[in-house]
Structure formats: C-alpha cells, structure tokens
C-alpha cells in the first residue's frame, strides 16, 4: 500500500509528554513513522492513501491539541527515533537528568563507557572523605591537645583501610546508582558513545538516535607540561587512592582543594608530605585571611609548603622521584617515593566527536552552554564538570535536573550559580560562599569586612583548636551580607547557614539578632557579625 509523507502544524504542545500524546493519536488512526517535535510545533508522519488528512487533524484535536496547516513532503526512509533522551555519562548530572526525564514520561537511555556512578562515588568524594576521616582519627590519637589524656596509635593497616573504603564505595554505587536504573525504568548501554550526526551516536558499532541528548561525561585529572613528568610513575587523585602501601614521602604538585585534602590525608597517616605550587600563596582565589590561616594550620601540623615554585624538570632515580624547582631564585630538589599531580581537571570530550553534532567546545575542551544548558546544537544539552563550571557533585546534579526540565519538560529554566557554597575537607576545614572582598569591590560595591580569629570563638577554645578565622563581607551602605568565608572545624556544616544568609539577602543586623547556640562553631557567624563594631573578646559568654 503506497503512502505519502506530511508535515502538520500542531499548537498546544509544551513538553515531550505532549509529543508522545500526539504520536499516540496519530498512530491510532494508522499513521506511520511519526516524529513529533513540541519545540517546532509540528508532526511529520507517513499516511496510507486511504486515510485523509482531515482524519489526522480530527485525531489531533481529540487529543486536546489544535491541528494547523498540513503540507505533503517527499517520503524519507528515516524512522522514529530510538529514544526521547540519550544521556552520555552516568554520574551525578546524568542520574539527576535521567530520573527527571523519566518522570516526564520520556524513553531514556544512559550510555557509560566505564564504571557506573561517575567521579564522586567511585574515585572522588566518597572514597577520599572516608579516608580523610580515618586519617583524622589516627592523627588526633597521636596528637591530642588535652593534658591528662595519654592516647596513642599503632601502625596503620593501609590494606584494611582500603578494603573498608572499597566496600563503602561498592555499597553506595549499588544503592545510589545501579539500583535506580531498574527503579526508574531507563536503559543502560555499556560502551563509548561517538556522535555520527546531530541526532545519532554510535556505540559498540550500533547507531542510536534520539530527539534530545545530554552530555554529562565529567572531567579527569589534568597533567601539566613539565619536562620529564611523563617519564616518571606519577599519581593522580584517582591512582593515589589505589596505592597498595603508604610511601614514606609524598610530594604534591598543586595545592588546590584536591592537593590539600589528599596531602593532609597522607600526612595524618604518618607520611612526610611536601606541597608545591606555582602561585605565591595557596588558595590564591580566596581572601588573604583565609589562605594565610590555612597555610599556618598546615605548617603547624608539619606539612612542608613551598609557594612560588617554578618547576624545571622531574626525574626518576631508582625508587626516588626528584622534582627540580626554583623558588625565589634558589634551585631546590624535592625527593619523594611518590608524586601526586593535582593541578586541576580537564573535560572528558575528546572521544565524543562533537564536531559531527555541531557542538562547539572552548579552549580547554569544555562544552559551551548557554543559560539554559543548551549547546550550540539545540537538540543537545550539557551539564556537570564537562562544562567546567564549579566542580561539585551537587552542582552537577542541579544542572542535570535543569537540563531535563528544559530538554524534556519544555521549560525555560535558567541555571543560577550565583550562590555556590564550597568546602575543602581539610582539618581545619575551609568553607566559602558568596563574594570575596576583592570580587565585591570589582563589582562596584563599597565594602565593609569583619574578621574574627578562631580563638575568639568559644567552641574553638574548648576544643583547643584555635588556628582559623571567620570573615564576613558586607555592603557598606545596606550591610547586606555578600560573602562568608571561614577556616574552622566543621566549617562545611556552618556554611549552609551562611549560604542562606547570602542567598536571601540577610543583613549583618539579621545575623546579630538571631540566637546562636552556645559552644557551636556556627556561633562564629553571629560573633563575626558583632565584630563589625564590638570587640567580642570583651563580651561575656553568649552576650550580644
């Protein structure tokens, strides 16, 4: 039976669920190869000659949409898309998007070339933080600050620590990722995806089509171009957490949050650690009071910090790695059994063949997106670390949900990353939200700041851990809180309250008037607000 192909304008569609409703209506009257697009407001389909176009319009109208003009087009061989939504990657952004898309009624496939779960659960947040906690306990057993407590710690059984870490990773990967695939009913395809054209990827030799795509392939360690580095057995944040035994000495190139956390982790377990960096101070993007407090804490603990280093070359000399550096004109050689390279991350885009899909990337290979997470191909979205935004799993999950809302739900949600709390899980921890003093001035604010040393916070005094600081950045005219930054125990727990203050425009006076529980680190928020015009060291306990 011969058939003709038509394009029909359809009004009233707002999301991918509408597409499916219209597709069902057309299939019910005998239409074939139906392709509906709510964004363009049209349906393309083949119609047997014995079925008139008026019957098609009637079916669309009965489905509670409005059929418009129809035009006959030349028949094509292409069929329906295999999926409504294909997600490349399986981390935080990917799963957030998949769950949201399924809730909209979409047919979803997720493509993963490696281990399900992405960076956070497998080689990032989960394994590093559980090991950080174990290292803290070990360190404090050997270095407790209380007279009369004779604590000690025996040798570290690294193998058992690693086994316990691996068990936790396996458990959470199963519960929070693998089990959700069947729970929500989307399909997992194991293999590497490569774009063939704007709506087709190839996986394991098979071509798969979709109406929409999400690129959520994450990022991986960036290796700097230092002479000799590629010829030595250096470690990354991934391979460091798979070491079979602890080294005696660890050198770290880079002192961002990854270098600081992992360097201190190994130091707390008894390894001699040297942190090296090119910039003249650690955490160069932070306010100076923060970076100075962190460097002081690390130095007090016995970690060697070398700032302003120019890396000349790296050499392997037997079991020893030698890092040749120049610091303030003086040549030095740093020796260690292991070398961690922690100089940032790069987006995982090389294997995607994005040019075939007309998706543009930036200078670092990152996928370029607009405020709605659309790439330069309106069919394709991107979310998470592959866009090189803030490298946090909670940001990736937030973006993944918005990408699904826009790509599948038909919404026009903009990403808002103005208020992103950040935590580095060192001891003391580092937490920040909002604008630094420098950023606030660059944006034209007249700024007032308040700085409170940690020895003015009662909780720090009773804990006998007083190296740290609270800093509050405010608008000098309105006293609206613009930023909060701190170095303290439990800083990560405190920063959520600070994030609410910044997000909802609270003032310094609001913080002063809010009751703060005594002997909590969060009390430091109130005290740093009081410090604008009072010397809190001259106040009685709990006095405001």
Automatic annotation (TrEMBL):
The keyword Disulfide bond applies. FAD binds at residues 129, 385. Its EC number is 1.16.1.1. Residues 4-68 form the HMA domain. InterPro entries: FAD/NAD-bd_sf, FAD/NAD-binding_dom, FAD/NAD-linked_Rdtase_dimer_sf, Heavy-metal-associated_CS, HMA_dom, HMA_dom_sf, Lipoamide_DH, Mercury_reductase_MerA. GO terms for molecular function: dihydrolipoyl dehydrogenase (NADH) activity; flavin adenine dinucleotide binding; mercury (II) reductase (NADP+) activity; mercury ion binding; NAD(P)H dehydrogenase (quinone) activity; NADP binding. GO terms for biological process: detoxification of mercury ion. It is an enzyme of class 1 (oxidoreductase). Its cofactor is FAD. It catalyses: Hg + NADP(+) + H(+) = Hg(2+) + NADPH; N(6)-[(R)-dihydrolipoyl]-L-lysyl-[protein] + NAD(+) = N(6)-[(R)-lipoyl]-L-lysyl-[protein] + NADH + H(+). Keywords: Disulfide bond, FAD, Flavoprotein, Mercuric resistance, Mercury, Metal-binding, NAD, NADP, Nucleotide-binding, Oxidoreductase, Redox-active center. The active site is a redox-active disulfide bond. Homodimer. Belongs to the class-I pyridine nucleotide-disulfide oxidoreductase family. Resistance to Hg(2+) in bacteria appears to be governed by a specialized system which includes mercuric reductase. MerA protein is responsible for volatilizing mercury as Hg(0). This is Mercuric reductase.
């Amino acid at each position: 039976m011969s058939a003709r192909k038509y394009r029909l304008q359809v009004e009233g569609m707002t999301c991918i669920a509408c597409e499916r409703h219209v597709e069902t209506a057309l299939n019910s009257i005998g239409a074939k190869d139906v392709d509906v697009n709510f964004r363009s407001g049209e349906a393309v389909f083949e119609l047997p000659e014995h079925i008139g176009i008026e019957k098609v319009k009637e079916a669309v109208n009965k489905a509670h949409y409005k059929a418009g003009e129809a035009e006959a087009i030349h028949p094509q061989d292409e069929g329906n898309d295999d999926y409504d939504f294909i997600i490349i990657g399986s981390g935080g952004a990917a799963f957030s998007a998949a769950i949201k898309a399924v809730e909209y009624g979409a047919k979803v496939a997720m493509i993963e070339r490696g281990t399900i779960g992405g960076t956070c659960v497998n080689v990032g947040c989960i394994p590093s933080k559980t090991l950080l906690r174990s290292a803290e306990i070990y360190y404090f057993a050997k270095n407790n600050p209380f007279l009369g407590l004779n604590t000690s710690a025996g040798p570290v059984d690294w193998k058992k620590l690693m086994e316990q870490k691996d068990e936790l990773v396996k458990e959470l990967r199963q519960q929070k990722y693998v089990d959700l695939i069947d729970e929500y009913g989307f399909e997992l395809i194991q293999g590497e995806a490569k774009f063939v054209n704007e709506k087709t990827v190839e996986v394991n030799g098979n071509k798969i089509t979709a109406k929409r795509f999400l690129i959520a392939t994450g990022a991986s360690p960036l290796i700097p171009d230092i002479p000799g580095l590629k010829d030595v057995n250096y470690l990354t944040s991934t391979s460091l957490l798979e070491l079979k035994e602890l080294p005696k000495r660890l050198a770290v190139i880079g002192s961002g949050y990854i270098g600081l956390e992992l360097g201190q982790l190994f130091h707390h377990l008894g390894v001699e650690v040297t942190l090296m960096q090119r910039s003249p101070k650690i955490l160069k993007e932070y306010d100076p009071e923060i970076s100075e407090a962190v460097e002081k804490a690390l130095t007090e603990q016995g970690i060697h910090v070398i700032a302003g280093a120019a890396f000349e070359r790296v050499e392997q000399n037997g079991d020893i790695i030698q890092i040749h550096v120049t610091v303030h004109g003086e040549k030095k050689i740093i020796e260690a059994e292991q070398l961690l390279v922690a100089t940032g991350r790069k987006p995982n885009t090389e294997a995607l063949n994005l040019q075939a899909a007309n998706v543009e990337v930036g200078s670092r290979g990152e996928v370029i997106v607009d405020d709605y997470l659309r790439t330069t191909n309106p069919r394709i979205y991107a979310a998470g670390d592959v866009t090189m935004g803030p490298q946090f799993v909670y940001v990736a999950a937030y973006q993944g949900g918005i990408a699904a809302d826009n790509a599948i739900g038909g919404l026009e949600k903009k990403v808002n990353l103005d208020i992103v709390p950040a935590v580095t899980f060192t001891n003391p921890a580092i937490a920040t939200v909002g604008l630094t003093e420098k950023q606030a001035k660059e944006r034209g604010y007249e700024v007032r700041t308040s700085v409170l040393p940690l020895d003015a916070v009662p909780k720090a005094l009773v804990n006998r851990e007083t190296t740290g600081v609270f800093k509050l950045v405010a608008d000098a005219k309105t006293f609206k809180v613009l930023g909060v930054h701190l170095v303290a125990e439990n800083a990560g727990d405190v920063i959520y309250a600070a994030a609410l203050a910044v997000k909802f425009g609270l003032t310094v006076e609001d913080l002063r008037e809010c009751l703060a529980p005594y002997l909590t680190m969060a009390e430091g928020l109130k005290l740093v607000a009081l410090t604008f015009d009072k010397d809190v060291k001259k106040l009685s306990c709990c006095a405001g």
